C-alpha cells in the first residue's frame, strides 16, 4: 500500500494524452472587472467542471464538440455561455438585480459575497465533495472537510446511535443553528444521554437531508444569535438546496469497512449502500423551477467488540455501528408570478429505521431467563424515526423593498423498540420484543422580512428588518406495559425481585408521559454600511420573548477593512443566547446504566418535577454568551490565499446533565430510595465556560503538467475551559458532586483541541485524484475508575481516484482511513460505551473502501 500513491499519480500522468475534447480557458470577472475567485465552471450535462483561481482564471478540457459552460458564484447570477475554443471572458452580474438573489449566511445583504463578508464563512460545494470522497451522509462529509465541525457515530448510547450529534467550534450540538435555504430547521426530539459528544444536549439531525439534494453548505463560524435567533452561539450551518433544471443526476455508491476486530472470519463489514436521483424542470419564463431528489441509504452493522484489552474479559459481545435504513424525498421549487414576485416552497420527508446494539446480558446474569436465552442475549434497540418539513413563502419586490413572507413547519418523531430481549419478571413467559415508547418535537414558524439596498448612501447601505412567531410542541409517550412493569407478585422480597421492563432499554412509563408547548416572538433590525469602498460597518439587534422563561435582547457589531487589494481585516463582537429546548425542560425517564459493568437503575427527573423542586433546583433559563472574532484574509500572489480568524466565546448558565446522585447520598438518598432507584440526575444551568480558538485556511493553486493541483491546509485550534460550576438549593456547595470532573470531561471532549486538514486535489482531463490527511489531537476522558483516559493524536489518510468513462458517466474509487487507524484502546469495563474506546476523534471502524458511479445528463 505504501507504493500505491506514487504509482497512481504516475499512472495519471502517463494517460493524460488520451483525454478527448478541446481545451478551454478563460477568466471570470464581476461587473466592475475584478476577478471572481472560486467561481464554479461546469460543462453542462456532464460531470466535467473546475473552479477559478485567485486571479479568476480557469482551464477546462471540454468533452463535447459544442460545449456549453455554466458559470456560477455566490452573490452572482449564474450564466450559461457557449464555448468553442480559445480564451473566454465571462462577466457575472450581481444577483441582487432580481429576486433570484442569493443571501450568504452571516449577511442579509443580497450583494455580499463570501470574500467580503465581515464574518468567516466556509462554503462547501457538495457536488465537488461527494464526487471524490467516501463519506455518504452530511455529517460525515462535513467531519472530514470542515475542521471546525465534528461528528462521530455513537454505539451503546441509546437514541444517539440513531441520530449522530454534531458540534461546531467545540461547543454543544444545540449551540449551532441549522438553516435550510435560510429558514430555521427544526431540531431532533432526542436528548443525548450517553457518549462523549452532546451529552445532555438536543441538536439538529443533518442526515435527514440527502446530500444529493444539496447545492452547497455554508458554515458561518461566528456568533449570530442577534441575526438569526436562539442556538446560533457557535455559528450557523445553512444548507442550500439544488435548483438546477434540465439536468438528471443518478448516483450509486457502495463501501465497506475492513473488519479487523470480529469473532468470526469476515473480512469486511458495515456495508454502506446509497442510491439517489435528482432532476429539475423549468417553470414559467422568470427562472421558475421544480427540483426533486429521491435518496435511499442502507448501512449494516460493524462489529468491534473483539479487542485484546480487558483483563476481566469483554463487557459486550456486540459493539459497533448500528444498522440503518434511510429513505428520503426532498423538493425545492419556485413559481414565478411576475418579474417582481414569486412563490417558493421546499422541504421533504425522511424515514429511518435502525437496529443498535445494547449491553450484553450474559448467561449467568440475574436479568436473564436461561430457558429463553441459555447463552445470554444481546438486546437490540430499534428506532422508527419520521422527520418532515415544509416551507412555503412569497417573495415580492415593492417600493424598492424585497419582502419575504413564509410559513415553516417541521416535525421529528422518534419511537423506540427493543427486540432480542425479555422482561425478567415475566420469567419463561416473557415476550422477546417490546414497544418502548418515544417522543416527538414539532415547530411552526411564521416569518416576515424586508430588505433594501441604498446604493447612493455613501458607498452602499443595506437595511433589513423582520419578525417571527414560533410555536413548539413536545410530547413524550409511554411504551407498552410489559416494557416497563415489574410482574413479581406482591410481597416478593426485594432480594428476590426480578428486573422490570425490557432489558437493554426499559420503556417509558405513563408517569413519564407529558405534552408541552411554548411560543416565541422575535423581531430584528440589521444594517450594513459601506463607509468607503474599503471600509464596511455592520450591526444587528434582536429581541425575543419566550412564553416559558421571558425575554432577551442581543446585538452584534462587525467591521471589515481592506488594507490593500490583497489584505483585509475583519472583526465582530456579539451577545447571544440559547433557549433550553422543550426536550431538556420536560424529558424524564427511568433507564438502565452500567457502572463498572454492573446495571443500575437511574432516574432522570424533569426540570419541574417534585424531586427537583424539593432539591431547590431552579427552572431552566436561557444560556447567554459573549463572542468576539478577529481575522484577516489575504491573497499572497496570484495563486495563494490565506484566512486567519481568532475567536473567543464565553457562555454563562450552560444547560448540562448533572452527575448522578446515589441512593446513599446524605441529602437526597431517602427520596431516591422511596422511588426505588439507585441513582438520579437532572438538567440544570450549572456551568460557565470559555472557548479560545483559531481557524486557519491556506489555499494554493498550481498548474502541474496539463492538469491543475488545488492544495488546501485548513485547521481549527480550540481550548474550552470550565470556569465555574454553580449549584443551588439543598445541593449548594457540592460542585464536584453536582457536575464533577467526569461530566466536565464529556463537555470538553465535544471536539479535539485541534483538527488539521491537508488536501491535494488534482484534475487532469478525465482523470482526478484526491489525497487528504486529517490530524485529530488528543482527547481526554475519565473512566469509571476515575482515572484519566488519554486518546493520543491520530492521523487519517483518504485517497480517491476518479475517471470520466464517458461525457456523462464518472467512476470513483478509493479508501477513507487508508492506514486503518483506531483511537487508543482502553479496558471496555471502564469506558462509557463498554467498548475499547469511546466515540472520539475519527470514529472506531477503521479502513473504509468505496466505489461510486455517477451519471449526469
Descriptive overview:
This protein has a 22-stranded antiparallel barrel. The longest helix has 11 residues. It has 2 domains: 93 residues, Carboxypeptidase-like, regulatory domain (Immunoglobulin-like), CATH 2.60.40; 763 residues, TonB-dependent receptor, beta-barrel domain (Maltoporin, Chain A). The N terminus is likely disordered. Strand 37 and strand 38 form a beta hairpin. The chain is mainly beta. It is 7% helix and 49% strand.
Topology, please?
Elements: H1 4-14, E1 23-29, E2 40-43, E3 49-51, E4 57-61, E5 68-72, E6 79-82, E7 87-91, E8 121-125, H2 126-132, H3 138-143, E9 149-151, E10 166-168, E11 176-180, E12 183-184, E13 214-220, H4 225-228, E14 235-241, E15 247-258, E16 268-283, E17 288-299, E18 323-338, E19 341-357, E20 380-398, E21 401-419, E22 433-454, E23 461-477, E24 514-530, E25 535-546, E26 550-564, E27 567-578, H5 582-586, E28 589-595, E29 598-605, H6 610-615, E30 623-635, E31 640-657, E32 661-662, H7 669-674, E33 679-704, E34 707-725, H8 735-738, H9 741-748, E35 754-764, E36 767-776, E37 779-782, E38 788-791, E39 794-804, E40 809-816, E41 848-856
Parallel strand pairs: 1-7, 11-14, 29-33
Antiparallel strand pairs: 1-4, 2-3, 2-5, 5-6, 8-13, 9-10, 11-12, 13-14, 15-16, 15-41, 16-17, 17-18, 18-19, 19-20, 20-21, 21-22, 22-23, 23-24, 24-25, 25-26, 26-27, 27-30, 28-29, 30-31, 31-33, 32-33, 33-34, 34-35, 35-36, 36-39, 37-38, 39-40, 40-41
Protein name: TonB-dependent receptor
Subcellular location: Cell outer membrane
Signal peptide: 1-19
Amino acid at each position: 500500500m505504501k507504493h500505491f500513491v506514487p504509482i497512481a499519480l504516475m499512472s495519471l500522468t502517463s494517460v493524460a494524452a488520451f483525454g478527448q475534447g478541446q481545451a478551454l480557458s478563460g477568466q471570470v470577472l464581476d461587473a466592475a472587472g475584478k476577478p471572481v475567485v472560486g467561481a464554479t465552471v461546469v460543462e453542462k450535462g456532464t460531470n466535467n467542471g473546475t473552479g477559478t483561481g485567485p486571479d479568476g482564471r480557469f482551464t477546462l478540457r471540454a468533452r463535447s464538440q459544442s460545449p456549453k459552460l455554466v458559470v456560477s458564484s455566490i452573490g452572482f447570477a449564474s450564466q450559461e455561455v457557449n464555448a468553442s475554443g480559445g480564451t473566454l471572458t465571462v462577466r457575472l452580474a450581481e444577483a441582487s438585480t432580481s429576486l433570484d438573489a442569493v443571501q450568504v449566511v452571516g449577511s442579509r445583504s443580497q450583494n455580499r459575497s463570501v470574500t467580503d463578508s465581515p464574518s468567516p464563512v466556509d462554503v462547501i460545494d457538495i457536488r465537488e465533495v461527494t464526487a471524490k470522497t467516501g463519506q455518504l451522509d452530511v455529517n460525515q462529509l462535513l467531519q472530514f472537510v470542515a475542521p471546525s465541525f465534528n461528528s462521530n457515530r455513537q454505539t451503546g448510547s441509546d437514541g444517539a446511535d440513531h441520530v449522530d450529534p454534531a458540534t461546531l467550534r467545540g461547543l454543544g450540538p444545540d449551540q449551532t443553528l441549522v438553516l435550510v435555504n435560510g429558514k430555521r430547521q427544526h431540531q431532533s426530539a432526542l436528548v443525548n444521554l450517553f457518549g462523549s459528544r452532546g451529552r445532555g444536549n438536543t441538536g439538529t439531525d443533518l442526515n435527514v437531508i440527502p446530500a444529493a439534494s444539496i447545492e452547497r453548505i455554508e458554515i458561518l463560524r461566528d456568533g449570530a444569535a442577534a441575526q438569526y435567533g436562539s442556538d446560533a452561539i457557535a455559528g450557523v450551518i445553512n444548507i442550500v438546496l439544488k435548483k438546477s433544471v434540465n439536468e438528471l443526476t443518478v448516483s450509486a455508491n457502495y463501501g465497506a469497512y475492513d473488519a479487523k476486530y470480529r469473532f468470526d472470519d469476515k473480512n469486511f463489514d458495515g456495508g454502506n449502500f446509497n442510491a439517489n436521483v435528482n432532476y429539475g424542470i423549468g417553470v414559467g419564463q422568470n427562472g421558475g423551477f421544480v427540483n426533486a431528489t429521491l435518496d435511499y441509504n442502507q448501512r449494516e452493522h460493524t462489529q468491534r467488540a473483539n479487542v485484546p484489552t480487558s483483563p476481566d474479559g469483554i463487557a459486550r459481545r456486540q459493539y459497533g455501528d448500528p444498522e440503518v435504513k434511510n429513505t428520503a424525498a426532498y423538493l425545492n421549487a419556485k413559481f414565478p408570478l411576475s418579474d417582481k414576485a414569486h412563490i417558493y416552497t421546499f422541504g421533504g420527508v425522511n424515514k429511518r429505521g435502525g437496529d443498535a446494539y445494547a449491553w450484553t446480558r450474559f448467561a449467568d446474569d440475574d436479568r436473564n431467563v436461561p430457558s429463553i436465552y441459555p447463552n445470554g442475549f444481546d438486546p437490540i434497540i430499534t428506532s422508527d424515526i419520521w422527520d418532515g418539513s415544509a416551507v412555503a413563502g412569497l417573495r415580492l419586490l415593492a417600493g424598492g423593498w424585497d419582502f419575504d413572507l413564509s410559513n415553516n413547519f417541521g416535525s421529528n418523531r422518534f419511537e423506540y423498540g427493543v427486540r432480542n430481549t425479555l422482561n425478567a419478571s415475566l420469567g419463561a413467559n416473557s415476550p422477546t420484543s417490546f414497544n418502548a415508547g418515544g417522543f416527538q418535537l414539532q415547530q411552526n414558524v411564521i416569518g416576515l422580512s424586508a430588505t433594501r439596498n441604498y446604493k447612493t448612501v455613501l458607498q452602499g447601505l443595506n437595511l433589513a428588518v423582520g419578525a417571527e412567531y414560533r410555536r413548539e410542541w413536545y410530547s413524550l409517550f409511554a411504551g407498552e406495559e410489559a416494557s416497563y412493569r415489574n410482574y413479581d407478585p406482591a410481597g416478593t422480597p426485594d432480594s428476590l425481585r426480578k428486573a422490570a421492563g425490557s432489558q437493554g432499554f426499559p420503556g417509558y412509563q405513563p408517569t413519564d408521559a407529558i405534552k408541552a408547548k411554548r411560543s416565541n416572538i422575535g423581531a430584528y433590525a440589521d444594517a450594513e454600511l459601506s463607509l468607503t469602498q474599503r471600509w464596511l460597518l455592520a450591526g444587528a439587534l434582536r429581541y425575543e420573548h419566550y412564553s416559558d422563561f421571558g425575554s432577551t435582547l442581543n446585538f452584534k457589531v462587525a467591521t471589515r477593512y481592506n488594507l490593500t487589494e490583497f489584505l483585509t481585516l475583519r472583526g465582530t463582537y456579539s451577545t447571544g443566547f440559547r433557549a433550553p429546548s422543550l426536550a431538556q425542560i420536560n424529558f424524564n425517564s427511568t433507564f438502565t446504566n452500567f457502572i463498572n459493568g454492573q446495571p443500575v437503575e437511574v432516574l432522570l427527573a424533569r426540570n419541574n418535577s417534585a424531586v427537583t423542586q424539593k432539591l431547590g433546583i431552579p427552572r431552566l433559563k436561557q444560556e447567554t454568551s459573549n463572542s468576539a472574532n478577529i481575522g484577516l484574509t489575504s491573497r499572497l500572489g496570484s495563486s495563494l490565499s490565506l484566512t486567519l480568524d481568532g475567536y473567543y466565546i464565553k457562555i454563562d448558565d450552560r444547560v448540562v446533565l448533572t452527575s448522578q446522585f446515589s441512593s446513599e447520598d446524605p441529602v437526597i438518598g431517602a427520596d431516591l430510595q422511596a422511588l426505588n432507584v439507585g441513582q438520579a440526575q437532572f438538567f440544570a444551568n450549572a456551568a460557565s465556560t470559555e472557548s479560545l480558538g483559531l481557524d486557519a485556511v491556506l489555499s494554493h493553486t498550481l498548474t502541474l503538467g496539463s492538469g491543475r493541483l488545488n492544495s488546501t491546509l485548513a485547521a481549527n485550534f480550540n481550548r474550552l475551559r470550565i470556569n465555574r460550576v454553580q449549584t443551588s438549593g439543598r445541593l449548594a456547595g457540592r460542585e464536584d458532586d453536582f457536575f464533577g470532573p467526569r461530566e466536565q470531561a464529556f463537555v470538553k471532549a465535544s471536539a479535539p483541541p485541534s483538527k488539521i486538514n491537508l488536501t491535494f486535489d488534482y484534475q487532469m482531463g478525465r482523470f482526478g485524484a484526491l489525497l487528504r490527511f486529517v490530524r485529530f489531537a488528543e482527547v481526554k476522558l475519565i473512566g469509571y475508575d476515575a482515572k484519566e483516559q488519554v486518546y493520543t493524536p491520530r492521523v487519517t489518510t483518504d485517497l480517491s481516484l476518479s475517471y470520466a468513462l464517458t461525457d456523462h458517466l464518472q467512476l470513483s474509487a478509493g479508501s477513507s482511513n487508508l492506514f486503518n487507524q483506531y483511537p487508543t484502546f482502553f479496558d471496555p469495563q471502564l469506558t462509557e460505551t463498554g467498548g475499547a474506546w469511546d466515540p472520539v476523534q475519527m470514529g472506531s471502524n477503521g479502513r473504509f473502501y468505496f466505489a461510486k458511479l455517477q451519471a449526469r445528463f
